[in-house]
């Protein structure tokens, strides 16, 4: 019972599966530890090992068109449609230099082997060479008749040659010394997409969309051979000899230049230029297009050879595939997928935790595939391919034998049962006449699942754990079916004991059905809009629903009455879930908010805002300590319960404050006012600081002590002190202390140091009006005392001569009659009053002068009215009245 009352109070976003690549250029760092990806107008730097975004380089609101790492891997060069080329420092994320390169967007850029020269290829049909350090153009080459698609330097710095390829089907060779084109290689019949130079520097490879690779001799600049590859090529890379990649061995294929190609077939192949022989073909490809019916979107768009016998491929559906060389059949090297990073997930439709320890996450997006992610590396471990349309709903479970299963349903009117250990489809459930938008596993027996469709029917599908034959998914048969609702079915939930199933529909109702017959038990009516989600309580006889009317309701299973209603979302509630043994609720809505509710007090405990669009998916881990949310912003947030950590941190802070409070009391007792003031600032307690200043001013040497205190303060403490003075000055009870502290500050701290305090202008503007009000009040009181002076002096003239002596001061010693002067007590009081008023005038003049000095030093041209004339008039009036 005690653990049930340990409510959760806070969740923190521990990690996120975020958008980092939307298509376009990609660059791999020289040490292959990070990747630079174009993300709309920004650039994301992604750590290859963890899959997390380590840096974001903010763009200029135009799409990025080309990327290139510096030779040291610490800098990055980028080009965008704004026609600007930028040099970035990755560690700080700042742009070091930018310049306009071409009259059209840059399509490709590359650095020479020394890292000092940058070549840019543009849609304006020109190639420019830049000095990276100086930022000026050294060469301008023109001659292509189409867009320049690729450019590459000769690897030998002694041979100052530059090669460029264009969609006019030609490759041009440029001499950097002669600053002219020395050869035109024109054997292609379509756009040339990629160039590569052999490691020895004597062979040039050009690949194009005419489905061939031309091999050029760089000694005579003639065509050596043509290799037909029978696919539209996007990239060609040299395979170094003896590197360990498939086809790189000297015993395979004999002499010649070995190279790999990628294109619209989505497979990696290795070739030998000698004899145009194929050395290696990837047996199976994990690269998939976003739509099988659209051939223009398929294939691999870019590939590069990385250190450590690895290659990186970039697919058309924004996936980064990393292959490593491993021993294959017969001992020959083979490519194995070592990591898959998904750059763009589109909308997150649904997600569920996978595994006993919830270390994996199944995600359904606007694609036909279901992706399984590892939460630690953020890498995609599996892609479940089989649906022919978008997947809409997921559910996971573990059988009694520990077999992990997943069921998915989609717009192809079917549901599929998957074995997550092998990634194979075990069974297919067909029979619905419309999209299947809801599917849920049995909770207890784990031997059936229920599906709900837009055809308004619910079907129950039994299955066995090992129903599939190798390579052939079984066809599942429904055991029961019922026409459940008048509109689309949005969600389903099965009771913990498998006796009931509840359906939620757009007809504004939720219905409870008895299993396995699917007979109606009760109808839950009361929502004013469609019901989006439903969930059984794990401990009580009740059901929770979330609706488009922005409310969450808890219903009694016995009579169907509404027990509680939770209001707080500003848009439709799309997902709900029970946590903390059914005593709390977690909800997600179309307002992009995740809310934590406590059922007992019917209140929202906390609200989490980390999405920019509606949240379609919410998943709770088995222990309830982890939550995953995904939405229309293509972002998956992982939330971790941090209630215990927050409480421990709160206790620690309270202990520290208690110790500092004791130190403050000890410092006051020891009259160590400097330490007391410092502790009051650390505790951020202005009232305690006010008490310290009051005690200081009770001492005779308060001026010296205040000077020591103020000289020990830094700029930040001075800013805080002025903020406190501004607050004290607004209250008549504390204004006298505020004025005295301010008087001491202006006499101890020089104006040059004061104007360096952050926000000094705003602080003085807040102090001046109340200071004027206080001085006006003192002036009115002073003038009121003149009436008292007049009355007392008039009354003294009516007293007998003997009584008048009472108004004189009797000296304690024998007076010197010749030189002694006696003054009435009223004159003495008047002098003290005048002295005080003069001090007030001086204080106000000092504040005004300080404000005027600050205004003159500030760049802001806003003028604050000068109060000095008012002070002067007030002072002259009092002097006139005094005399």
Automatic annotation (TrEMBL):
<feature type="region of interest" description="Disordered">
    <location>
        <begin position="858"/>
        <end position="883"/>
    </location>
</feature>
<feature type="repeat" description="WD">
    <location>
        <begin position="566"/>
        <end position="607"/>
    </location>
</feature>
<dbReference type="InterPro" id="IPR036322">
    <property type="entry name" value="WD40_repeat_dom_sf"/>
</dbReference>
<feature type="repeat" description="WD">
    <location>
        <begin position="185"/>
        <end position="220"/>
    </location>
</feature>
<feature type="repeat" description="WD">
    <location>
        <begin position="524"/>
        <end position="565"/>
    </location>
</feature>
<keyword id="KW-0853">WD repeat</keyword>
<dbReference type="GO" id="GO:0009880">
    <property type="term" value="P:embryonic pattern specification"/>
</dbReference>
<dbReference type="GO" id="GO:0034511">
    <property type="term" value="F:U3 snoRNA binding"/>
</dbReference>
<dbReference type="GO" id="GO:0005730">
    <property type="term" value="C:nucleolus"/>
</dbReference>
<feature type="compositionally biased region" description="Low complexity">
    <location>
        <begin position="862"/>
        <end position="871"/>
    </location>
</feature>
<dbReference type="GO" id="GO:0000472">
    <property type="term" value="P:endonucleolytic cleavage to generate mature 5'-end of SSU-rRNA from (SSU-rRNA, 5.8S rRNA, LSU-rRNA)"/>
</dbReference>
<feature type="domain" description="U3 small nucleolar RNA-associated protein 13 C-terminal">
    <location>
        <begin position="661"/>
        <end position="795"/>
    </location>
</feature>
<feature type="repeat" description="WD">
    <location>
        <begin position="99"/>
        <end position="140"/>
    </location>
</feature>
<feature type="repeat" description="WD">
    <location>
        <begin position="608"/>
        <end position="639"/>
    </location>
</feature>
<feature type="repeat" description="WD">
    <location>
        <begin position="384"/>
        <end position="428"/>
    </location>
</feature>
<dbReference type="Pfam" id="PF00400">
    <property type="entry name" value="WD40"/>
</dbReference>
<dbReference type="InterPro" id="IPR001680">
    <property type="entry name" value="WD40_rpt"/>
</dbReference>
<dbReference type="GO" id="GO:0000480">
    <property type="term" value="P:endonucleolytic cleavage in 5'-ETS of tricistronic rRNA transcript (SSU-rRNA, 5.8S rRNA, LSU-rRNA)"/>
</dbReference>
<keyword id="KW-0677">Repeat</keyword>
<feature type="repeat" description="WD">
    <location>
        <begin position="57"/>
        <end position="98"/>
    </location>
</feature>
<dbReference type="GO" id="GO:0030686">
    <property type="term" value="C:90S preribosome"/>
</dbReference>
<dbReference type="InterPro" id="IPR013934">
    <property type="entry name" value="Utp13_C"/>
</dbReference>
<feature type="repeat" description="WD">
    <location>
        <begin position="141"/>
        <end position="184"/>
    </location>
</feature>
<dbReference type="GO" id="GO:0051301">
    <property type="term" value="P:cell division"/>
</dbReference>
<feature type="repeat" description="WD">
    <location>
        <begin position="429"/>
        <end position="461"/>
    </location>
</feature>
<keyword id="KW-0539">Nucleus</keyword>
<dbReference type="Pfam" id="PF08625">
    <property type="entry name" value="Utp13"/>
</dbReference>
<dbReference type="GO" id="GO:0032040">
    <property type="term" value="C:small-subunit processome"/>
</dbReference>
<feature type="repeat" description="WD">
    <location>
        <begin position="482"/>
        <end position="523"/>
    </location>
</feature>
<dbReference type="InterPro" id="IPR020472">
    <property type="entry name" value="WD40_PAC1"/>
</dbReference>
<protein>
    <recommendedName>
        <fullName>U3 small nucleolar RNA-associated protein 13 C-terminal domain-containing protein</fullName>
    </recommendedName>
</protein>
<dbReference type="InterPro" id="IPR015943">
    <property type="entry name" value="WD40/YVTN_repeat-like_dom_sf"/>
</dbReference>
<dbReference type="InterPro" id="IPR019775">
    <property type="entry name" value="WD40_repeat_CS"/>
</dbReference>
């Amino acid at each position: 019972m005690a653990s049930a009352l340990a409510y959760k109070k806070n969740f923190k976003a521990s990690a996120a599966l975020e958008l980092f690549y939307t298509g376009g250029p990609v660059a791999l760092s020289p040490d292959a530890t990070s990747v630079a990806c174009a993300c709309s107008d920004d650039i994301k730097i992604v750590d290859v090992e963890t899959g997390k975004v380590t840096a974001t380089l903010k763009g200029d609101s135009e799409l990025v068109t080309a990327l290139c790492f510096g030779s040291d891997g610490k800098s990055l060069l980028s080009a965008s449609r704004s026609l600007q080329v930028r040099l970035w420092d990755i560690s700080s994320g700042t742009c070091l230099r930018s310049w306009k390169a071409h009259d059209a967007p840059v399509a490709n850029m590359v650095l020479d082997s020394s890292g000092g020269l940058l070549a840019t290829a543009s849609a304006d049909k020109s190639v420019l060479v830049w000095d990276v350090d100086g930022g000026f153009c050294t060469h301008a080459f023109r001659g292509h008749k189409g867009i320049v698609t690729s450019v590459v330097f000769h690897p030998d710095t002694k041979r100052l040659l530059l090669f460029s390829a264009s969609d006019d089907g030609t490759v041009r060779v440029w001499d950097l010394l002669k600053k002219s084109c020395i050869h035109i290689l024109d054997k292609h019949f379509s756009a040339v997409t990629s160039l590569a130079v052999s490691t020895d520097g004597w062979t040039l490879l050009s690949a194009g969309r005419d489905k061939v690779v031309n091999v050029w001799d760089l000694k005579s600049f003639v065509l050596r051979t043509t290799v037909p590859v029978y696919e539209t090529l996007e990239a060609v890379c040299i395979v170094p000899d003896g590197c360990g990649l498939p086809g790189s061995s000297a015993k395979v294929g004999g002499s010649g230049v070995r190279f790999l190609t990628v294109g619209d077939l989505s497979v990696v192949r290795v070739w030998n230029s000698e004899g145009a022989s194929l050395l290696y073909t990837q047996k199976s490809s994990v690269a998939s297009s976003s739509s099988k019916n659209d051939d223009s979107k398929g294939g691999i768009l870019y590939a590069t050879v990385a250190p450590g016998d690895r290659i990186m491929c970039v697919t058309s559906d924004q996936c980064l595939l990393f292959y490593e060389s491993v021993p294959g059949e017969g001992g020959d090297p083979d490519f194995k997928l070592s990591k898959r990073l998904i750059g763009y997930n589109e909308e997150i439709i649904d997600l569920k935790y996978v595994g006993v320890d919830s270390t994996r996450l199944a995600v359904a997006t606007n694609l036909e595939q279901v992706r399984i992610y590892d939460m630690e590396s953020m890498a995609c471990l599996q892609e479940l391919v089989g649906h022919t349309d978008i997947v809409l709903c997921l559910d996971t479970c573990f059988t009694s034998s520990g077999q992990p299963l997943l069921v998915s349903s989609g717009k192809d009117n079917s549901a599929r049962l998957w074995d997550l250990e092998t990634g194979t489809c075990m069974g297919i459930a067909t029979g619905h006449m419309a999209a299947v938008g809801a599917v849920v596993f049995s909770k207890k027996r784990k031997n059936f699942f229920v599906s709900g469709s837009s055809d308004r029917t619910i079907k129950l599908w039994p299955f066995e754990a090992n129903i599939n034959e190798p390579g052939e998914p079984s066809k599942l048969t429904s055991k029961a079916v019922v026409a459940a609702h008048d509109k689309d079915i949005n969600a389903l939930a099965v009771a913990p004991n498998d006796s009931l199933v509840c359906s939620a529909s757009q007809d504004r109702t939720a219905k409870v059905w008895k299993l396995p017959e699917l007979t109606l038990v009760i109808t839950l009516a009361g929502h004013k809009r469609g019901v989006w989600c439903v969930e059984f309580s794990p401990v009580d006889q009740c059901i929770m629903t979330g609706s488009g009317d922005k409310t969450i309701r808890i219903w009694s299973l016995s009579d169907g009455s509404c027990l509680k209603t939770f209001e707080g979302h500003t848009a439709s509630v799309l997902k709900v879930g029970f946590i903390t043994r059914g005593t709390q609720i977690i909800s997600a809505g179309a307002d992009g908010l995740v809310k934590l509710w406590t059922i007992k007090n019917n209140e929202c405990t906390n609200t989490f805002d980390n999405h920019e669009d509606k949240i379609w998916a919410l998943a709770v881990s088995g222990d309830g300590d982890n939550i995953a949310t995904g939405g229309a912003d293509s972002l998956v947030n992982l939330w971790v319960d941090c209630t215990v950590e927050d409480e421990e941190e709160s206790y620690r802070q309270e202990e520290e404050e208690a110790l500092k409070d004791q130190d403050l009391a000890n410092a006051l007792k020891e009259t160590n006012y400097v330490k007391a003031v410092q502790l009051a600032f650390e505790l951020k307690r202005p009232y305690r600081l006010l008490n310290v200043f009051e005690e200081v001013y009770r001492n005779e040497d308060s001026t010296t002590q205040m000077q020591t205190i103020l000289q020990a303060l830094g700029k930040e403490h001075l800013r805080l002190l002025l903020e406190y003075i501004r607050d004290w000055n607004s209250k008549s009870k504390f204004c006298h202390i505020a004025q005295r502290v301010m008087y001491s500050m202006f006499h101890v701290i020089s104006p040059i140091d004061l104007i360096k305090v952050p926000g000094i202008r705003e602080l003085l503007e807040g102090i001046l009006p109340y200071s004027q009000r206080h001085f006006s009040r003192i002036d009115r009181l002073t003038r009121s005392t003149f009436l008292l002076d007049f009355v007392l002096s008039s009354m003294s003239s009516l007293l007998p001569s003997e009584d008048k002596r009472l108004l004189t001061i009797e000296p304690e010693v024998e007076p010197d009659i010749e030189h002694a002067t006696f003054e009435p007590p009223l004159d003495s009081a008047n002098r003290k009053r005048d002295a005080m008023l003069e001090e007030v005038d001086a204080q106000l003049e000092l504040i005004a002068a300080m404000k005027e000095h600050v205004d003159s030093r500030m760049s802001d041209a806003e003028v604050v009215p000068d109060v000095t004339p008012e002070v002067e008039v007030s002072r002259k009036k009092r002097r006139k009245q005094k005399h």
